[in-house]
């Protein structure tokens, strides 16, 4: 049989290695490899090269999975950090807003009696007591809190925020009139579970009040 050249055999080696050649070609290659050290060496190099390629592919696949996992973790961590940042920012804004309203808009501080002037106290024919008030000191008043004690003492307490926005505006006092009917007050509190006769009326804090009227006190009649 004519010996086939090594060049031809080495061209067939990839087909032989992948087992996609015919049986006759396979037999021919194996007979040649049995007698040819150079072609056996070429076959070993081919096997080593292809094996290394497969290993590299596996390594690359593992590295790719690792990078994907790192990317997922990074994205997840970055998203959590973003949410935490939003929560911290929202909490900070809430604290600032609450602090602003607590200091400048929350009317809880009673006005001292030495800043209050009461005048023109009178009584109407229907029993309603009317008086004028003037509050100095730059207070910005929204309302007066009211309360009644068990002895029938009724208090109207003007209140202001903790920090005054117009504290330096001494020339603009707050003034107005108040109308109080002791009988109507008793009916109101009775409907809310406290039946007590109103025996006195004060303007200011219970700890620092100004007497407006007391049962038995004579007041001038007025409109």
Poorly predicted residue ranges: none
Structural class: alpha+beta
Q: Major β-sheet, in short? A: 5 strands, mixed
List the secondary-structure elements in sequence, H or E: HHHEEEEEEHEE
Rg value: 49 Å
Helix content: 40-55%
What's the multimeric state?
A: single chain
The fraction of residues assigned to DSSP E strands is 15-25%
Count of β-strands: 8
Number of helices: 4
- The global form is rod-shaped
Total domain count = 2
Mean pLDDT: 80
Question: What is the CA–CA distance across the termini?
Answer: 143 Å
Task: Outline the fold blueprint.
Blueprint: H1 6-18, H2 23-35, H3 37-105, E1 109-110, E2 116-123, E3 129-135, E4 144-148, E5 153-160, E6 174-180, H4 182-191, E7 200-205, E8 208-214
Parallel strand pairs: 5-7
Antiparallel strand pairs: 1-5, 2-3, 3-6, 4-5, 7-8
TL;DR of this structure?
The protein has 223 residues and is an alpha+beta fold. 47% of the residues lie in helices and 22% in strands.
What does this structure look like?
The protein has four helices and eight strands. The chain is an alpha+beta fold. It folds into two domains: 6-75; 109-214, no CATH class. The strands form two sheets. Strands 1, 4, 5, 7 and 8 form a five-stranded mixed sheet that branches. Strands 2-3-6 form a three-stranded antiparallel sheet. A hairpin with a 5-residue loop joins strand 2 (116-123) and strand 3 (129-135). The longest helix is centred in the first third of the chain and has 69 residues, at 37-105. It starts with 5 loop residues before the first helix and ends in a 9-residue tail after the last strand. The model has no long low-confidence stretch (mean pLDDT 80).
